[in-house]
Amino acid sequence: MNISTFAKLTGLSIHTLRYYEKLGLLSNIGRNASGHRCYTPADAQWVNFINRLKATGMPLRQIIDYARLRALGTPTLAARNRLLCQHRDALQQRLQQDLEHLHALEAKIALYQQQLNKVADQ
20 to 30 A Cα–Cα from 105, which one of 3, 30, 99, 120? Predict the structure, then answer.
């Protein structure tokens, strides 16, 4: 598929896709006879994984490191696993902190609701 179709499919801009190529996140993108980029479903799966890593807070530098390891193949499986495990652990910690913040907000909202009910009963 061409770059504009791929951009729509992945939710990324054409500029971002070209930037990802420059960074090495997207490599070995095929070209058609006219020299235009030609993306595959496998490219879409990879970009979706990149988007997921970004959405979970992985820094771009780490995503680039992961992509570099991925490009090196099977000998890097342990390193890639370690990188993803470290990210998972950081994400779990962040989720726990967010849950604590949510509970504090819920407690404050419950307090306000009690006060509003008292005012309404008067």
Answer: 120
Q: What pLDDT shows up at residue 27? A: 87
pLDDT of residue 15 exceeding 90, the answer is: yes
Give the total number of structural domains in the chain. Answer: 1
51 Cβ contact partners less than 8 Å away, ≥ 6 residues apart: 10, 11, 12
Residue 121, pLDDT above cutoff 90: no
Cα distance between residue 115 and residue 94, in whole Å: 32
Q: What CATH number does the domain containing 107 carry? A: 1.10.1660.10
C-alpha to C-alpha distances, 1 to 14, 19, 31, 37, 121, nearest whole angstrom: 13, 18, 10, 8, 64
pTM over 0.70: yes
